[in-house]
Amino acid sequence: MDVMIKLAVLLLLGVIGGKLARMVKLPEVSGYLLFGLLLSPSLVQAIFGSGISFLSSSDISNFTIISELALAVIAFSIGSEFLLKSLMKVGKTVFVITLAEVIGAITIVFSVMYFLFDQTFAFSIVIASMSAATAPAATLLVMKQYRAKGPVTSTILPVVALDDVFGIMAFGIAVSFARLSIEALNGDVVTSIWTMLWVPLREIGGSLILGVVLGFILSIISKRSHNRDMMKAISIAFILGAVGIAKELHFSSLLTNIVMGTTLVNLDRHAHRTFNLVNEFISPFYVLFFTIAGASLELDVLAVVGWIGVAYVLARGIGKWMGATSGAVAMKAPKTVKRYLGLALLPQGGISIGLSVLVRQIFTPEFTGNQMAAQIITIIMASVLVYETTGPIFAKLAISLAGEVNGLDSVTPAAGVEVVVS
Description:
Layout: H1 3-23, H2 28-37, H3 41-48, H4 57-62, H5 64-79, H6 84-116, H7 121-129, H8 136-145, H9 151-185, H10 193-224, H11 228-248, H12 253-267, H13 271-295, H14 299-304, H15 306-330, H16 335-340, H17 350-362, H18 365-368, H19 372-401
Helix pairs in contact: 1-2, 1-13, 2-13, 2-19, 5-11, 5-12, 5-13, 5-17, 6-7, 6-9, 6-15, 7-9, 8-9, 8-19, 9-10, 10-11, 10-12, 11-12, 11-13, 15-19, 17-19
């Protein structure tokens, strides 16, 4: 069957899944993942027999470019949240809370995988690093739906944006350590402390410099261009170029795009126009990205790693809650932030799925000698399904316990200012 037909079916199935998810008050991404799972080769073959399959493993691999594009745009959009004027207002409190919840999640997950389940160092460090990122969409939807306002609500947005950056950095460091660990076990290299430190530092530093340079050039073009179609094409070209150059130089394409977006939003007052144009173009690819992710879930591997998957879900949640709480206590944040912020940081989505794509590319069976990548991807996908379904419930619980539901309605408008409720 022609690949275009398969893409058309995946896209339509994702749209239907997203629509049904909204009807039952769930995030659309949950619908994309679940309906993509219906076309998973492992599920189709389990039901209809080994001779029948709509998608093959090679099809999933061929769709990688779609996943890379969607993930790059997600990273670029995250950069738009880091306006320096806004960051100066939230100060070091958000930085410390975010760092604490990222370290908390990574530490707890690594400890459970490595010490309790006796997994390899490479497996444990990589999957632990993937536990850091938070998916803000579901939480923000709940905040908007219940018109929430208060200390917890005001802290959530900068934290979830910043922890994606920390998570990507942690992933880059973890991958470098995991590679060196596997190579050392295979007798390919003699690992030194300097090598272990230099590789991730080079990747992070190079990504930062490349992102700033590309963002600076894009900001100059953006200021001078008034043609919507041309600016849309140029922006996508820069995002794709950032991915390509980063891969050629062995930098992080995700971090490069985040920094490019951050540079653009701080140098161009009308940068929102560029971000809106990119989002208009990319929305169908988001649907495909998550639907393909669901279709790549390997149920036979899930059966093997079942208890490890359950442990990962619990360890990540506990780590994030403990980390956020300890960070809030250290910074003497308001009492409601100390108690309830961690509950609102559980959703896991786009970035984690995107990192799974990178895991599949880097840790091939030929390199690792086992199914490490398939196990990690399956656990992450299952975790995303759990957290995207339950995350909004915990987010609602957090703002309810904090007393911030309908907080916007209690704000007294300034004299002469009309408040419009959309």
